[in-house]
User: Which sequence fits this backbone?
């Protein structure tokens, strides 16, 4: 069986505000608490300076 030993470090996401395709690393993620037991991972879009939610 094939196993993933390490996932690629870079991930891509589309900014919902300006449509820019962003490439980020795990270190760029910011974890923000949005509720009692809810957390959200975010990055900042360098093109429009808006927060982009990462799932
Ligand atoms: Zn943007």
Assistant:
């Amino acid at each position: 069986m094939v196993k993933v030993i390490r996932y690629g470090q870079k991930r891509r996401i589309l900014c919902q505000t300006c449509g820019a395709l962003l490439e980020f690393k795990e270190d760029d993620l910011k974890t923000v608490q949005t509720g009692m037991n809810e957390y959200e991972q975010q990055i900042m879009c360098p093109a429009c300076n808006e927060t982009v939610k990462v799932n």
Q: What stands out?
A: The chain is about 0% helix and 45% strand. The radius of gyration is 13 Å. The chain has a mean pLDDT of 91. The chain has one domain: 10-54.
